[in-house]
Amino acid sequence: NAGVTQTPKFRVLKTGQSMTLLCAQDMNHEYMYWYRQDPGMGLRLIHYSVGEGTTAKGEVPDGYNVSRLKKQNFLLGLESAAPSQTSVYFCASSDRDRDYEQYFGPGTRLTVT
Amino acid sequence: DAKTTQPTSMDCAEGRAANLPCNHSTISGNEYVYWYRQIHSQGPQYIIHGLKNNETNEMASLIITEDRKSSTLILPHATLRDTAVYYCIVRVAVRTNAGKSTFGDGTTLTVKP
After folding, report:
1. Measured between beta carbons, which residues in chain A are less than 8 angstroms from residue B87?
2. Which residue of A has its CA nearest to B98?
3. Which residue among A50, A99, B68, B90 is least crowded, i.e. fewest CB within 10 A of its CB?
């Protein structure tokens, strides 16, 4: 099992550009999450999903959109990147009956100039 | 979810037990204590959780005080690879709130040779 994978690992964007981060999991988990982590800080939840076709806002959703068209994939989109979105983005997934045990991907390091 | 307080940083000698405290004085009766750790640049990793009884697994032990207002994560024989940020999280039980967890700033544990 690959677990949770994220694409790409690194990206540099110019202000105003758009991009999509892809998260994939092969554990058949119902729940998936997107977090951001700024330097020296804890993780903050951006959006999450409790199943295919459903998404919900987390703590810091502004400037991001998400989609979960397939159970195994959770996409995070930035429509118009801003320097404040420079961060490391982590995707996670969990089983509905063990939702406290989230499995995290390796992260995507995004820099917006 | 109840708020948690952890020391910013701690040191531990290799081979000795590492005891990481967490204060959660406002914890409710239906809230569990969860611990994650994040090794540098990686995604967080679930360690252990408990309600009121002490818990042990292959990674660590969790000691929760009788009044449940504080807990201690114990790594019995710390190694250099245990150097990480350790997060104490308090939230309600499974299948509620979609598994959402609030990661604070955590404790940076440094294991020294």
Report:
1. 42
2. A50
3. A50
How far apart, in whole angstroms, are the C-alpha atoms of residue A94 and residue A107? 16
DSSP state of A47: E
- Cα A61 to chain center, whole Å? 11
Cα B97-B100-B106 angle, rounded to 5 deg: 140
Its sign, for the CA torsion A93, A7, A75, B87, is: positive
> From start to end of chain B, where are the E strands?
9-13, 18-23, 31-38, 45-50, 55-56, 61-64, 70-75, 84-92, 107-112
Q: DSSP characters for B21-52?
A: EEE-TT--TTEEEEEEEE-TTSPPEEEEEESS
| Pairing between β-strand A10-13 and β-strand A108-112 as defined by DSSP bridges | parallel
Nearest CA in chain B to A47: B100
Q: What spatial distance separates the first Cα and last Cα of chain A, rounded to whole Å?
A: 36
Flag if A105 and B43 touch (Cβ within 8 Å). Answer: yes
By C-alpha distance, the chain A residue nearest B47 is A101
Q: Best mutation site among A35, A57, A87, A101 for testing chain B: the one with the most B CBs within 10 Å?
A: A101
DSSP reduced 3-state for B82? helix
User: What pLDDT, on the 0 to 100 scale, is given for residue B1?
Assistant: 64
pLDDT digits (tens, 9 = 90+) for B50-92: 999 899 999 999 999 999 999 999 999 999 999 999 999 998 8
